Amino acid sequence: MVVGDFPIETDTLVIGAGPGGYVAAIRAAQLGQKVTIVEKGNLGGVCLNVGCIPSKALISASHRYENALESEEFGIKTEKVSLDFSKLQEWKGSVVKKLTSGVEGLLKGNKVEIVKGEAYFVDDHNIRVMDEKSAQTYTFKNAIIATGSHPIELPTFKFSDRVLDSTGALNLKERPGKLVVIGGGYVGTELGTAYANLGTEVTILEGADDILSGFEKQMTSIVKKGLKKKNVDVVTKAMAKGVEETKDGVKVTYEAGGKEETVEADYVLVTVGRKPNTSELGLEQVGVKLNDRGLIEVDKQCRTSVNNIYAIGDIVPGLPLAHKASYEGKIAAEAISGQPSEVDYIGMPAVVFSEPELATVGYTEQQAKDEGIDIKAAKFPFAANGRALSLNSTDGFMKLITRKEDGLVIGAQIAGTNASDVISELGLAIEAGMTAEDIAMTIHAHPTLGEITMEAAEVALGTPIHIM
Q1: pTM above 0.70?
Q2: 319 lies in some domain
Q3: Which of the residues are catalytic?
Q4: pLDDT in tens, 165-206
């Protein structure tokens, strides 16, 4: 018998096992569906294998190294601090392995069938899954596409051993002496900072007026101040022109201030955005509509133009965030099960693991004003928080955006240590429809960074205790 002669039936078929796909598969299985998930690479997708998790592991290790070098003001003197970069990479790999094996265990524990291979739509109820040896048809009632995205390659910076995408930068065998980063978005800033902490001489070239364009300038200015302390050269309004590769490094040419400049380095990292993985799926076979950016058009339940096919994550409009993909995965699985679930992005946080960290949720001050909302912006500095002082991390602030008429919390921005953790309370406040008074009346443990949220709420109410 030829393999693939007879279609295998399933209720819900998920294409892609990243943070969107595997979460969708598990939620669908919890709701009683027979689920099959197809993945051509490693379980966990870009996020767990070559994105969010390994990059944060590298950032964490870089902080340890930096702290070991710079602890004299605490009365701690260290001698002969050294970096075993291969050991660092080995540890980073162990973190990834734990999480990816955990995803496999969760899928199997929820009775999700895992299939390795590439999926191609035959029609709106059948896909063909192919690997190197065989092909098999699967018949489904509903499908969820969660194929993620890949780094954009510039025509004048073709990826190679010396011209790296984020995956290449995370898997270097050696710590670069010099590194040029093209693109000052969150990936470029995070990895540039991590390598600077490890002693690499870093240059960041950003084409726009500022790095981290999605955040307010009063937030990014604190990050730039931190980068300057690390001797990172940030060049804005810089247009990367080309690269000349040599045996031992690269020479990058760029234009800034009307002049052509060059900078030499061991490697150049290109982080100028990502493209959705929507080609080579056979979407045209079933009539799934894409917009002019190649993103799949979906409704509030993540349903595409084809009624029984859903799409989530980086392949649909919105920020390419792992937690957005997971959220949409749950919504799609619930919609398939007949529940009235719909996406609501007002409480969707965005975080950059820069130094200090940046985090935002809900409306910014400017966004609220643009929509004609009468708001109050209340700021509280990290420098007035006891825990921040004890951590010696006093740069930054929290800004709470509340509606003037009733004190409703509609947004928050944080620039400061552990902003990625502190932002969660503000997301909950927005989701639950809480007011500044609700937060101010909540007893926060002392001394903690969480108190900054309470203090900002008190500023919004006009009753601050720890600042004038």
Answers
A1: yes
A2: yes
A3: 446
A4: 999 999 999 999 999 999 999 999 999 999 999 999 999 999
Residues 331 and 406 occupy one common structural domain: no
296 in the same domain as 209: no
Q: Is residue 1 part of a domain?
A: no
pLDDT in tens, 224-273: 999 999 999 999 999 999 999 988 999 999 999 999 999 999 999 999 99
**Residue 228 annotated as part of some ligand binding site:** no
* In a shared domain, residues 195 and 216: yes
Q: Do 139 and 21 fall into the same domain?
A: yes
Domain count, the chain: 3
Q: Does 166 carry a binding-site annotation?
A: no
Was 314 annotated as part of a binding site? yes
Q: Which of 325, 345, 365 is the last residue of a domain?
A: 345
Give the domain CATH number at 223. 3.50.50.60
Annotated binding residue 345: no
Mean pLDDT value of segment 396-401: 98
pLDDT at 287 over 50: yes
* SS3 readout for the chain: CCCCCCCEEEEEEEECCCCCHHHHHHHHHHCCCCEEEEECCCCCHHHHHHCHHHHHHHHHHHHHHHHHHCCHHHCCCCCCCCCCHHHHHHHHHHHHHHHHHHHHHHHHHCCCEEEECEEEEEECCEEEEECCCCEEEEEEEEEEECCCEEECCECCECCCCCEECHHHHHCCCCCCCEEEEECCCHHHHHHHHHHHHCCCEEEEECCCCCCCCCCCHHHHHHHHHHHHHCCCEEECCEEEEEEEECCCCEEEEEEECCEEEEEEECEEEECCCEEECCCCCCHHHHCCCECCCCCECCCCCCECCCCCEEECHHHCCCCCCHHHHHHHHHHHHHHHCCCCCCCCHHHCCEEECCCCCEEEEECCHHHHHHCCCCEEEEEEEHHHCHHHHHCCCCCCEEEEEEECCCCEEEEEEEECCCHHHHHHHHHHHHHHCCEHHHHHCCCCCCCCCCHHHHHHHHHHHCCCCCCC
Residue 129 belongs to domain spanning = 8-150+275-345
